[in-house]
Fold this sequence. Notes:
Layout: E1 2-3, H1 8-17, E2 22-24, E3 36-38, H2 39-45, E4 63-66, E5 76-79, H3 81-93, E6 104-107, H4 116-124, E7 128-131, H5 137-146, E8 151-154, H6 156-168, E9 178-181, H7 188-198, E10 202-206, E11 216-218, H8 228-233, E12 238-240, E13 245-249, E14 262-267, H9 279-285, E15 286-287, E16 290-299, E17 304-310, E18 315-317, E19 320-322, H10 324-332, E20 337-347, E21 351-360, H11 368-379, E22 387-390
Helix pairs in contact: 3-4, 6-7, 10-11
Amino acid sequence: VFIENRLLDSYHAMLREHGCTVVVMDPLDGPAPEGVLQFWDLVNAASDEDNDVALDQHKHTVLLRFTGGTTGRGKCAMYSADNLMATRDSGYINPGMEFDANTRFLHVAPLSHGTAMGFYPSFFVGGTNITMNALDLEAWSRVAEAERVTHSFLVPTALYRLLELQKASPRNFSSLRTLIYGAAPMSPTRLDDLVKTFGPIFVQGYASTETAMFVAVLDKADHRTDSERAIKRLSSAGRVTPGVEVFITDAEGSVLPTGQTGEIRIRCRALIQGYYGNPEGTAKEFEDDAWKSGDLGYLDEDGFLYIVDRLKDMIISGGFNVYAVEVEAALAEHPAVLMSAVVGVPHPDWGEAVHAEVMLRPGVSVTEKELMGHVKSQLGGYKAPKTLTFVENLPMSVVGKV
């Protein structure tokens, strides 16, 4: 097990108990504890002779990485070398992301997370990667300004908070030219506010652990509000990346026509080899060299991909399908709402009822009845929350996903 020196005291006993040899990445100040080797000692002692080991870039597994587990138990994804090169190349295939030798990419989350999507294209083009390993937006703001950061990746909930910070205490972000967002739905109303505050620097990327490349991209040029058609496009994930095949199916796997909602399935070069030690999970989620994403969506006539909801998150209330994403988007249009999470709760008559957990903007008040009425006026009565709770915070993952 390779670990940073600062983790040695915390993990040494447990790792040794499990029979692991531990390799620390930097020289130790004193003698190495039992079973601990030092990385640079191993490098310096290694032979320069060719070891006659060859890696098949398509078949051999070079990386194991767990899914986030936000919709169930995490699964261990297997990546080939070519999967990782597809991650890199998808940053170049979409030129609006503007990766070049002057790129300075600020990573909030650890590189084991989705931010690695920006690491590979930055590294291979000769740019700079700056790591934080913590979702601290005040620290992000200080570092972005001081280090003249050009690129970063933040999930929508983090961008909402950054928007409030920038309005309260503006900083000089003139070096920023590409802010990538994704991993969760973005409110079109909030997005319009973000563009007005930070400028036309936003790019949405749709991807997943199983297809770790920019599968679809809503480019900077598509972040417009000058027509109803353009405003609707803000709620899409953008156009499918060249070389990627996205198709929409019904529950039986039959391809649906343009405009119809179904499960999103993906074939691409970044498609993983399956789940390590989990043949049942692999067989369930992969079919005909495509991944069954579990996302509900549709493609419009111009090739824009719309993510409607997670299949597991769809609420069926009184026989009607209610998508949590659209209820959250309607709530976000109210000026008092900072962010929300919408779920289905059991109901004796309707099967499920719509429930919302809502965070308000600081110093603003609104009643439950007002918010329920606001959603009702936007979406109709059956989609409006039947219950609503105001909360101080929503439970977040390490990268800021609810």
